[in-house]
Amino acid sequence: MKNPYRKLMMLGAAASLALVGACAPGGGGGGADEDTPEAAAFRFRQAVMRVAAGKMGPIGAMAREEVPVDEAVFAKNVNDLVAAAGMITEGFGADVSNAPAASAAMPEIWTNMDDFNERAANMLNAAQELAQVVEDGGFAAAQGLVQSTAGNCGACHRSYRERDE
User: Fold this and answer.
1) Three-state DSSP class for 67?
2) Mean pLDDT of each 10-residue bin along the chain, 165 residues long
3) Is residue 63 a contact partner of residue 146, using CB atoms and an 8 Å limit?
4) Are the beta carbons of 59 and 74 closer than 8 angstroms?
5) Topology classification of domain 6-160
6) Alpha carbon 38 to its chain's center
7) Number of CB atoms found within 10 A of residue 117's CB
8) How many CB atoms lie within 10 A of CB 162?
9) Measured over all CA atoms, what is the biggest interatomic distance in the chain, rounded to whole angstroms?
10) Which of 120, 111, 119, 143 is nearest to 130 (CA)?
11) Which of 11, 27, 38, 78 has a CB 3.0–4.6 Å from the CB of 98, allowing a cystine?
12) Are 130 and 147 in contact (CB under 8 A)?
């Protein structure tokens, strides 16, 4: 019998491995000098973004009814997303003049830092609102808020993340 939560578990495991790899010495630095503040900031923000994506994926899949709803998994992922969203700006403090070439962060983040910080705050607020609704009313009450929470991710990415070609 197939385990319907296998995909969710695999996503969680992949996010955990990505976090460990990004934080490990020599991991995730894109070839940049591993001892620079820029490389450390790059590794940190990569780890935070991987965790956020690893949590948002199963949240969205449940909301779109692509996988069975598990209230406990949904609530945990939402709470973990709040934690990750609260760390987003921490990875963008270092000057980018020496940033790793592998970074998808656009230089406009640092020239429009007030706007970037506002967008990051919007993401955190949306995730916190989602978490509160989950706590108060469970998945059914929160399902409709998932798309707007994900939209906050996209709003920032459209303005400040290089697109793959």
Assistant:
1) coil
2) 44 44 43 71 91 97 98 98 96 65 81 93 97 98 96 88 77
3) yes
4) yes
5) Four Helix Bundle (Hemerythrin (Met), subunit A) (1.20.120)
6) 19
7) 14
8) 11
9) 53
10) 143
11) 38
12) no
